[in-house]
Amino acid sequence: METILIIEDDAKLASLLSTYLSKYEFRTVIVEDFNRVLEIFNDTHPDLVLLDVNLPKYDGFYWCRQIRTTSLCPILFISARDSGMDQVMALENGGDDYITKPFHYEVVLAKIRSHLRRAYGSYSQIQEERTLQAGELILYPERFVIQYGGQSSELTQKEAVLLEALLLKEGRVVNRERLLDLMWKDQHFIDDNTLNVYITRVRKKLKDLGLGDIVETVRGAGYRLNVTKDML
Question: How confident is the model over 162-183, as pLDDT tens digits?
Fold first, then answer.
């Protein structure tokens, strides 16, 4: 029996979701203390999470990032906020899907079953978690986490894509066009300066971990990650 963790501050909706899913032999756990979301997640070990965006104190994006530091389980956002930016934020912070309220319970059930199949069932690929490493710098691309010197830092989805591309060619130049294509596929309207913003963010997170300026700008070409530079 799969376990679904429901993180929803509308108690009535949470109860209705729980009752509906229980009919289909899912075990459900409803979070009631929104200061202990990660603790409850770790105690419950759910197979899938239904996560609202608007929550007391910290929003769903925050809790999604926290969960992603320890788990790759499917996270489905449920929210009355229907803007495209909210959906982008959900995916960039580690979510797998976004369901807009009001919704049909049959749609929620179908999405849950689909993500469970992909994660654990007939569509899943049983394999160890993928990591990329250069020196002591380790990237967990599916969890959007970097680790160095016993410390870790969370990334957004696009920051993880950017750092993965640089790590794969560590010591060599990755041109700007390649990075833009990886981060914004088929979105030709992206301002070229947007890439500079993400480079700056990644540099800061690396610096906060104790690394120097290891993302080098190669004028007229692109960027190069030189981890060994900081170890000399």
Answer: 999 999 999 999 999 899 888 8
The bridge status of strand 137-140 relative to strand 132-134 is antiparallel
In terms of C-beta density within 10 A (0-12 exposed, 13-18 middle, 19 or more buried), how is residue 82 classed? exposed
Q: In angstroms, rounded to a whole number, what is the distance separating the alpha carbons of residues 197 and 164? A: 17
Residue pair 95/51 in contact (Cβ under 8 Å)? The answer is yes
Q: Are 29 and 3 in contact (CB under 8 A)?
A: yes
The Cα–Cα gap between 109 and 93 comes to: 23
Between CA 154 and CA 182, with CA 129 as vertex, the angle to 5 degrees is: 60
Is residue 76 within a helix (H) or strand (E), and if so which, with residue range?
A: strand 75-79
Does the global pTM surpass 0.70?
A: no
